[in-house]
Amino acid sequence: MFTRALFMTALIALTSASPTILSSRQQPGDTVYYLAPTAKAAGTAVDGAVLNAADGGLFIGKNTATSCPSNYLTCGDFTNITAITLTGSSASMDVAVPGGQAAYISGDGAFGFSSPAAGIPPTATQTGFTRIERFAPTETYAAVWFKGSDWLACPVADSVGVYQVRAAAIGDKTGCIYFEMAAIEVGSEEPQAYQYDSPLVVS
Ligand SMILES: *[C@@H]1O[C@H](CO)[C@@H](O)[C@H](O)[C@H]1NC(C)=O
């Protein structure tokens, strides 16, 4: 007989958060940070803007795009804010989907993230992220760098007010706004989304 206890066990297995993807460079003792990224660039159009995951990248001026399987019982529990996890020098998206979604900087400098449990493009770099406590100690956020540099918000053609996030260490600076990535602790180890939508982009 398929007992209620068995059903509950299956339910718990289905709904419990799966561990975030572990990269090979990640050490077991590394602290995991759960961060919601925003832009800090006083006097510019992007100051204070939230960075949202959409189309496999991070954007200002686009809504976060997530999905959740229709047979998954607790989709409504996800906040669906854009959050990344930082461990050691690697970053990934703060998701529940098995296998996780690795974050990376593509060959042309764009912040990207993989499809669930998928690899990253061959020219992308997955390590080089650092969390820097460079703001006042009483603040609940820190800065995130990539290879020792801040970030660029680059206007997206034909989309007024939309900017794509690129690593200043790699990206082309023409027409882009330089900003600090101020990452606010989300204050929870529960994933913020089931998965962020990520059309497979190879660069
Ligand atoms: C979060 O997004 C999922 C789809 O990914 C949706 O099913 C769920 O209702 C959303 N949660 C909230 C709180 O809106």
TrEMBL record:
Protein name in the entry: Cell wall protein
Signal peptide residues on this chain, from the entry's feature table: 1-17
Source organism of this protein record: Lachnellula hyalina
Record InterPro entries: PhiA_domain
Keywords, sorted A to Z: Signal
